[in-house]
Amino acid sequence: MRAERVFAYGAAAGLLGDHLLGDPRRGHPVAAFGRAAGAVERLLWRDHRGWGVLHTAVCAGGAAALGLAAGRAVRHSPAASVALTAAATWAVVGGTSLAREASAVGRALEAGDVEAARARLPHLCGRDPQALDADGIARAVVESVAENTSDAVVGALVWGALGGVPGLVGFRAVNTLDAMVGHKSPRYRRYGWASARLDDLAGWPGARLTAALATAAGGDPRGAVRAWRADAAQHPSPNAGPVEASFAGALGVRLGGTLSYGGRVEHRPVLNGAAGRPVRAGSGDIERAVRLSRRVGWLALGACAGARLLVRGVVKKGRTS
Question: How far apart are CA 81 and CA 237, in angstroms?
Fold first, then answer.
């Protein structure tokens, strides 16, 4: 069986597995990688970029190498190759857990239980929940759904299409390292520099595909394009900007503005400010964002699998002509 078909069948099965089962409560492979990366950090940490580069190379390179070795071990069995791709896809994508956590916060807000919503928010993002009112929590959830659609679903599928199982696990390793050491705290400003920059590079294609699919699948394609073009570049993240702006335009809401991380206040540009309305708790905005995220995930699978099959067909035609 050709590699492009292995990916198409395996990724479809893995994404369906995530949709039906979600993440395991115990023994998640990403959590195991996080523990291993933490152990490597304890051995290597120095307040120096070079040691951070080594940490990134050991952790991300090691994960990709394991994926490569596993793929080679089953390369002579199409069924085993599809099963391995399905297992890797299920392990690295997190669309169902993202939707469940976002919906849980949304239900708490609809019930008027702001304290319960604050308690659940850290499962989604690193915002300071005590600094947010109900509408602020709802906006944080919509922004997190948008960004994590790219990070937790589409980006992994893109790299799976490009690199098979090593691409899937390598991308998730890079994204996890960025979450662990890529922020600009005194401890990680230099040590986490390599992980943050590599995550920006790895996330670039998935973020643009996410923005394009959100534009196509949302309720206001023109608004999504307008917000993407006008506001994405103002966002401090080169990848979150297009994704959040396109989601804002597609949903007809305003995102961005003032936010707080661990007591540190940031004033980010408003996305879709000219045409959007504020996100409101209990208005259904969270569920609309979740539904859009799910549509984008399935469309990304079709786009990635279709692109691999198309490239294969073009290459084959070129060789026979």
Answer: 36
Identify the burial level of 88 via C-beta atoms within 10 angstroms of its C-beta, where 0-12 means exposed, 13-18 middle and 19 or more buried. Answer: buried
Task: Provide φ and ψ at 241, rounded to 5°.
Answer: -60, -55
pLDDT at 286: 97
CB atoms near residue 249 (< 10 Å)? 32
Q: Which residues 6+ apart lie within 8 Å of 176 measured at CB?
A: 30, 33, 34, 37
Among candidate residues 7, 166, 172, 5, the one with its CA nearest the CA of residue 71: 166
**CA 63 from chain center: how many Å?**
18
* One-character DSSP codes across 109-145: HHTT-HHHHHHHGGGT----GGG--HHHHHHHHHHHH
Give per-10-residue mean pLDDT for the chain (321 aa): 89 96 84 96 97 98 97 95 97 95 96 95 88 93 97 97 96 96 92 97 98 95 96 94 97 88 74 93 96 98 92 69 63
The model's pTM is: 0.94
Sheet with strand 253-261: strands edge to edge: 264-271, 253-261, 277-278
Q: Which letter, b or e, does each residue of 149-172 get, where b requires 16 or more Cβ atoms within 10 Å of its Cβ?
A: bbbbbbbbbbbbbbbbbbbbbbbb
- Amino acid identity, position 38: G
